[in-house]
Amino acid sequence: REPVFGDERNPDSEDAAFGDDELRAAIHGYYAMVSEVDHHVGRILDRLDALAIADETMVIFTSDHGEWLGKYGRYGKGHPADDAVSRVPLVVRAPGTAPQTGTVGTIVEAVDVLPTILEYAAIQIPPALQGRSLLPLLHEDAPGDPHRPGSAITEHRGWKTLRTDQFRYLIEESGREYLFDLESDPDEMVDVSGQPEYASALAAQRHALLRRLIARERPRPRTWTY
């Protein structure tokens, strides 16, 4: 089955039709860079140990995006920001919190990093700041954060997506909507937005995206002096 967006090019890069050799070289180069980053992160952690400040230093490791690397016949990043592009590592070591190993399945966003750092440093979080602190998720056996939206927004010029545990909803500037059921279709190959049995799910995702957009555009504090 052909992917829904398999024939589209990323407008922000020069996607070309790679042959097998070019694709192999691109993947090799990508993994080489991962290894290099891993090496230098290790150097940083070793330095923290050498300075005897590792036990008082929060370490956060993440990335702004992933890469297709040939998945769906595409390269780079962009529309529609499926998991290959938008699901990235987020590793946190926060001394003073109960140690937790493994992974947390809760959906979080990059905008959650700043309020996490502020709360950990005992700095008041501005009420208009987007994102929610991740500290409630960092404690072993912690109940989590009941107010967390349970979704992630990815957006760029002309489109927005909402990712929940079960669905990815995408809407374009034209009004065209897409819906992918990640439980039955984790590779996001089948758009189910037009299937009657998904009508209520489509409406719910549309409404959830609207609520989140309204919530994050709440009034900002006044900064003018007149």
TrEMBL record:
A Pfam family that the UniProt record links to this protein? Sulfatase
Keyword Metal-binding among record annotations: no
**Where on the tree of life does the source sit, at the highest rank?**
Bacteria
Q: Look up keyword GTP-binding and say if it applies.
A: no
Q: Which residues form the Sulfatase N-terminal domain?
A: 18-121
TM stretches of this protein: none
UniProt GO MF annotations:
arylsulfatase activity; choline-sulfatase activity; glucuronate-2-sulfatase activity
Q: Which UniProt keywords apply?
A: Hydrolase
Its EC number(s): 3.1.6.6
How is this protein named in the record?
A: Choline-sulfatase
- Write down the species: uncultured Thermomicrobiales bacterium
